[in-house]
Fold this sequence. Notes:
- The chain has ten helices and 68 strands.
- It has 947 residues and is of the alpha+beta class.
- Among the domains are: 315-508 and 559-585, YVTN repeat-like/Quinoprotein amine dehydrogenase (Methylamine Dehydrogenase, Chain H, 7 Propeller), CATH 2.130.10; 602-698, Sandwich (Immunoglobulin-like), CATH 2.60.40.10; 802-947, Histidine kinase-like ATPase, C-terminal domain (Heat Shock Protein 90).
- The strands form 17 sheets. The chain has a five-stranded mixed beta sheet with strand order 57-63-62-59-60, with no helix packed on it.
- The longest helix is centred in the C-terminal third of the chain and has 41 residues, at 705-745.
- The two termini are 96 Å apart.
- This is Ligand-binding sensor domain-containing protein.
- Keywords: Membrane, Transmembrane, Transmembrane helix.
Amino acid sequence: MMMTKAKQLLISLNNRLSKQVLTCLLLSFISLPLLAQEHQIINQLNNVTDVKQDSQGYLWFSGMQGLSRYDGNSVITFNNTNTNWPAPFGWTRSISHYDDKFLVGSETDQVTLFDPITGQSKRININSENNSIDQAIALNNSLYLRGENQLLKHDLSTNQTKVIYSGERILQLIIYQQSVYARLPNGLHKIENDRLIHVIDTDIKTTMSFNNQLVSYKQNNLVVIDGDYQIRNIPFEERIETATTSYDQSRIYVVTDSGMILEVDKQFNVSASKYPNTELVRTKFAYHDSSNVLWLSGNQMVKALSATDLTNHKAILNISDNHNEYTFIGDDLVIGSYGIGLQNYPNKNAVFPDNINETLSSQALRVSNLMHHGEYLYVATFEGLWRYHKTNKSIEKAPIEDNNKLLLKLKHKDNKFYVATNYDGFYVYDINTLSPLAHYHNGNGLYENQVIDVLPIDDKNVWVASLDKINIVDMTNDSIRTLSPNSQNKILDLVHIENKVYAATKGDGVLVFNLQGEQIDQLVPGVDFSGATNINGSVWASSRSGLYQIDVNTNEATLKPNTQQYKFVGTPFYKNNKLYAPHLEGVLEVPVTEQSRFHPNVKISQVNVSGTDQLYSDLIEVSSPKDIITLQLASLDYRRGHKKLYRYRINGGQWNDAGSDALILTGLNSGFYEVELNATNSLGQWSNDHEFININVAYPWYLTPTLRIIYVFVALVIVLYVGWLLHLRRRSLHQITQIMSADLKSRGKTALEIDQLLSQLESKLVTLSQNNPNIEIEELTDLIKMGQQTISNENNDANPRYLYGETLHAGLPYLADYMQKRYDAIVQIDLSFDDAQIDHVVHSDIYKLIHEAITSAVLAKKANMFSVKIHEFNQKLWLTISANSEIFAEYDSRINMNVAMYYIRQIAKKYNAAVNTHLSADNESQLNLSIPLMLLDDLEFQQEENN
């Protein structure tokens, strides 16, 4: 079996430390605290008088402190002095169910209707001078109230109270088959027509409703009243202190005056229960909850008992270190001690003769491992390998060479015997002849000579645990591969199952590998294991904090209930469908059976929003993202076990570890959140139950939903408006493109000029027809000739569309003369700048701009008088074109565009010029451009560089 840390320490310090030092070290290991502690509620509640479990799974305790709710970890107490959790009572006497609420009887405040979900309470007005109510139950719209020496009946519909009994103290009220029964010192009574009728005489210890029967205890008998009111007595030898039904109403748990817990089934068969005996001197009452915990109250304290099917075989030998090895020879348990050799189990059949250890040396008396095979029990000791013959009942040293080493582990598989040593690697022998087959050590590739465990996978591969490393030995070619697991602690035991290898470590949990040597998982990290084995397809691993069962399909590790109180020190072993796990005080027997899994309710037991406490509600309204939300979490499993784990996810995202039972949420942005919560039970298994809570973080006033709708509407209107403007712009640009294309393909400017000439001719003819003496025939003839010349393309060069190498001083007067002759348009020119300072390209572009602007206005018949002024001022060239109409004011539009506007903006963009328009009071318009001369100089420089 597996060597523990204490034993390894002894081995490494062997012959170097004194016995006293070793003893001190061992005592330090033995004094490690238990992982699981008693419920803290034992120290917090005072003089508990009653306990009930609500529909959510919380436990409620009445007593001197008021009414206390327990979630397995924390207590909330309601009373008339608690400002955080107020209630109209102080000392409470009883709790009873009333629909989904509680009726709470109190010492001085009569009866209160209490809602366990919201924590809200309402005092019921009882018309009685007696303020002390020991018990209150409800039936048929009436309350039956047990006072000090009175029985009261309160009608809830009329709010009237009357006394139906005065006399001896009433000990208990119970409802059975729609009737109320009262237990008094003189027997059991049924209440009919507001009168008490005797049912059972003499002293009744306790009464309960069970399996559609009324069960009482009287003078070593169980008195049973069935549905037909037939009474029968069932002998019951033990004296009963108290009793209660199980949570599922399938049995009765009886607490005797000796502290023994007995179980009574529906046929009234009595047997021992799975609960340990109680040490309470006087038990006042008992209660069984949904997690199979039995609660007992007595002597001003509460005790919680968890059911167990474990059997502890206690064996403490007279040695300083009780790290002993155990195994079976036949059906008898034997011990390989750590200091006094082979020992029979105390008070059992003797297997070893009394002189079995006489031939063993002092070192051989220290047994490190036992292995049973055939007729022999092989014994690994500090001084080599020994074997005990079961038939001859004799022990001898195994006939192998160099048999004086400190051995740690013995294994066998397929007629091969594997022996792990502390200083010399491991040996392989033939199991039948003990002839040597192989020896692997540090000299031929093994990582470390101290081999803690050997695991043969098949005839070829052997896994070897050496300190914090694992070697995989290929015995066909003697090759060795070293793995470096995710562990800094010793690897104590290796288990092969389902093509995986499980490695139990001394402090890093259980590591899981595939057969290729890749680590694929780490289970229960931080737990200090002492050994592991394969039992019926599951991995069972023992540790300082309990016994774990690992499901190899899901790799889920489950703590075996009630094993956390034992300090296991070796590898578990199997016999007759039971597991045996050695511990410091003996060996624990555990039935290997399939157990039902308990899925506790997972709850948010308390909510705190920025310092304000409240019980759980399905929606938390938070006024600001700055608020801090604290959710107190609870897994309502009251069994003793490990600390429960909690996880959460928000809006269906990834699961996150909550870290503790208090989940703190802060910095949530405004919006709606759904938080889902889950938890483990006391055995470390995740519950199927999930808890949900919604959190609504308010928006700032400027981001409220109403304003956000308005914002969206306004934004939509703006987008539509901008889209419409862009559509108009695109349409204008499309029209420009069509016009330019049409000009190139058909009419062009020639057609426009002809149209203009014909218009002038039509005007002259109209004037002539009116006998206007100012119109000459020669003028009409000239117009006709000009039209003919235009049509025949003889006058194309006469239209000054371009400068043709001239300057603005030369070209603009010609343009003005042409406009006057051709269109009767007057163009005045005013130029005051130096031509030489401006490149010819700039002259050409400015000329084209002026030509397009004037021609467009003339052909559109919107102006016939223009002035062009160009002058230099403040390092800029200023161009002003004036017209005797509003034509240039329209150039402000970026949506409705024409060809002239397009050319003007392209040229302005080229020279980074500013374009402005102006409309005067007399409807004259101006087009102004300012071109930076520095930019012109830069352009000229770039052109020279390019040339």
